Amino acid sequence: MSVSAIHDDHHDHGPAKGLMRWVTTTNHKDIGTLYMVTSLIMFMVGGAMALVIRAELFEPGMQFVDPMFFNSMTTLHALIMVFGAVMPAFAGLANWMIPMMIGSPDMALPRLNNWSFWLLPFAALMLMSTLFMEGGAAAAGWTLYPPLVLQTGAAFPFTIFTIHILGVSSILAAINIIVTILNMRAPGMTLMKMPLFVWTWLITAFLLIAIMPVFAGAVTMLLTDKFFGTSFFNAAGGGDPVLYQHLFWFFGHPEVYVLILPSFGIVSQIIPTFSRKRLFGYSSMVYATASIGFLSFIVWAHHQYTVGMPIEGELYFTYATMLIAVPTGVKVFNWISTMWRGAITFESPMLWAIAFVVLFTLGGFTGLMMSISPADLQYHDTYFIVAHFHYVLVSGAVFAIIGGVYYWLPKWTGRMYDERLAQLHFWLTTLSVNLCFFPQHFLGLAGMPRRIPDYALQFAEFNAWSSVGAFIFGFSQLIFCYIVIRCMRRQGEHASDEVWEGAGEHGLEFTLPSPAPYHTWETPPNVH
Amino acid sequence: MKKLMTLLAVSGFAVAGEASADYALNLTEGVTELSRDIHDLHMLIFWICVGIGVLVYGILVYSLIHHRKSKGAVPAQFHENTKIEILWTVIPFLILLGMAIPATRVMIKVYDTTGADLTVKVTGYQWKWKYDYLDEGVSFFSTLSAKSNEARQMGSGIDPATVDHYLLDVDHPLVLPVGKKVRFLFTGGDVIHSWWVPDLGWKKDTIPGFITDGWATIEKPGTYRGQCTELCGRDHAFMPIVVVAKPEAEYREWLAAQKGTADQAAGEPATPQEKPSDHQPEPPLAAAGSSEATSPAPAIDEPLTQEVAMTLGKEVYESHCQSCHQANGEGVPGLFPAIHGSPVVVQGPVAAHIQLVLNGKPPLMASFRNILKPREVAAVIT
Lengths: 528, 382
Prior knowledge:
The complex is a heterodimer. By secondary structure, chain A is mainly alpha-helical.
């Protein structure tokens, strides 16, 4: 082959060189990588904040940080994990996988794609810069409830502007995903043939478009309350602080499904592959996901059982919330039926998926308990809820993401990750996550409120365990970073095109070469 | 290998159900009808969840053990079965219905605040509680006890283990009669707080500008402790709640003693700064028994001597100012200004300082016009 031929080849099909490749890229794989790397960095940053929290809570008394800084840590930990780690990870997986899974050459709106990514690091940096501002970072919790949040110092407008930018970024990504899925599918890829990961993201994207403007509106009202003399949330001016909570949770509840639905999708991809069996009930999985998406809009006030709603409201939200258990149960039963009488093997992705099913279900049980409003009058705002949402978000969402990374990493990089290290990573993480969060159920039931930097002596023992678990959990993730970096640097065994035995039957992506070429499906595949 | 984790999870929950005595692993049964009902509801849902968990995890574990490739399992090809899919939709629905009925019954009871024997208004402030016995004209503040407060400062050098009821003790507890239906009215003075005593069975948010309510009939004399459960700023962790339930007669005695000090306070000559309360439907403020009501108060009508003023001022500072401006008056940089060396407070005219304390400094510093009595203002400023 002549030199010029290679050059042409490169020009047409390869990425540009250097930093500008990443700044100007419109390639879905590049953007997917950018999202994933950002997510991993933010995961470590948010994790470091969690370790500050757990260090202070290791024993009674104030040892390390001022209570105000502690509150900033809980606030930023949540905001960064939700908007900086989990959501970008899903966006990254969507970018990488959706075009490859539906037989499309790229995302439908590649320039928009670049823009929606590049908003993210700047928003994240701005959020972190608030730590150094006069008065410290926002310390009113990620829910930013007024009137408390109005006491924030110089960080206040920056925090809100950060949320606006993150919201724009999410909306743009969601639009792109919807357009891609609805317009770019290969011939024969009907909606009801799409992989579940694509389906769950389609529903998630609609949720995002519906809720982000509500959140942006609510925080803008905070902004005008603080700086322009309005009284949306100020009773003295005819407003109502609880109105903010309704607006926030109208966003916030679908938001937690934004964090979990794509996880359902990932797990629904992994389990059939390693059970060597079709997903038990494909269509019921799709309908269950759609029902969860719908229900997520009509249950928001179950976060506010203690604000003194009328009893009719209290009971309505109780019933509606309990209903969510039905489609969620359908999903769990489906995963288990898929494994039933399969031929199961336990490679790392499968381990994470199984741990997801077990631990997410546990989080589902505590969720059901809290949906019962009278009982929630006790559970509300204690460590019981902290345990609950960490079970569904860490051993739920984060486990699914890590499982997904192990599942697709060989396809992305062309290299097999180190299975022994990955198993070590799995077991350390799974044991420590339980050590960290399981005792928190007891703490909550015994009466320890959440968001406190210091506590009474009877809570000391479980807090110490929990902190030990948190530190093991945090440092175990360094193994994960090492494994991923090794693959990215093209070290390790070559992966086959199919990667996993028989995976070609479970997704179009495994019919492509490993590593996936820079451009894929320039000629759409035939799906039947 | 998943068995281990499943066992951990299930047995962990089972432990929570049984061994509740030593480590307080489970929800308290409490001392009211509501708390018992809620506890029973909690246990009901808990056992239902355990039952479902055993079934679901059992099937999962069986499958993981017997349907593994290394055991030569050959994948079956079945998928979709309408009958079973309808079953696993309908059965959970029926179970939920079974939970919803008792939940509704309990919730209706929780909301029934009618027929109360007495009413206490609870106001959440950053970071203390105020209790008003509405029909009795008794009212006082309740703040974290001085010992806990000292020990919880960073670098205090005091081991929390040496403090009785560390962080769960207050200077003036809420005293309530046993066997009487007490209605609580909640409101917030600055931000939202939440009033929770687990033994009473529930918590309620205190929302500025709005009134929420709740009730309790305490069945057993005793001391019941709780905390604020809605993040309310820097010292959210340091505004505990202590309820002391006394038999009716002892409660009456206590109340009479409170009224005694309150009447004394009412006799105090009004000063020019004393304006009638303009927006709170409360008894006149001068009549409000203050947080000093139960301490051996110096004779209240005498002019303040330097010595008395310093002692009283120190008390007031400790319960109202210290949490922000710190014990040494240095404040918290960037947030709470230092008093020590401040131009207004230390060097400026006294009138400016009085105005500052009375009017507060929005948004962070509350107005103390309705909180402190003139005498206390005078003392603290001294």
